[in-house]
Amino acid sequence: MNYIFNQGKDDKPVFLLLHGTGGDENSLLALAEIIDPEASVLSVRGNILEHGMPRFFRRLAEGVFDMEDLAFRTKELYEFIGEKASEYGFARQNIIAIGYSNGANIAANLLFEYENALKGAVLHHPMVPNHDTTVAKQAGTQVFIAAGVNDPICPQQEAIDLERYLTDAGASVTLEWESNGHQLTMNEVQKAKAWYERTF
Fold this sequence. Notes:
Blueprint: E1 3-6, E2 14-18, H1 29-35, E3 40-44, E4 48-50, E5 53-55, E6 59-61, E7 64-65, H2 67-88, E8 95-100, H3 102-113, E9 120-124, E10 142-148, H4 156-168, E11 172-178, H5 186-199
Parallel strand pairs: 2-3, 2-8, 8-9, 9-10, 10-11
Antiparallel strand pairs: 1-3, 4-5, 6-7
Helix pairs in contact: 2-3
């Protein structure tokens, strides 16, 4: 997988940056800089192309995921994180994912599939990755969800259901609503920063 790794301070977490459709490993670097400029960064490019645009897993239509590919790509990402933790010497249990849209969806599926896969997650405009699974235990995992009340791609119910799934699995979830649509706004980034500072 194509990626960027930037070493931060040893006492800080590692931000796993996961872009939206059409982004790449550079897309969320500025966002990470806003939330905590001293954190390490592992920013990954999705391995799938949809009409030339990078994604983290295939979909059959808007909002309809290829579940087989989602499972495969989630396992691939999980193993990749472990490899990079060994290579760069950071703690596997000290990772906070920051994802937008498609990147938020695969981050959410990491939480669904693997117990305590992440220390925390910032999910901008996510959907429920899988309604037909038992969510892995996430005791102590901190999750921030930013959702748009007018989001045409991720209906409000998706964020509400995702909050419930993760809370039922033991995660501590904060859900913040924006009046905008699917775009990633500076206001929600600032809310994520405030959440991060009081949580970690």
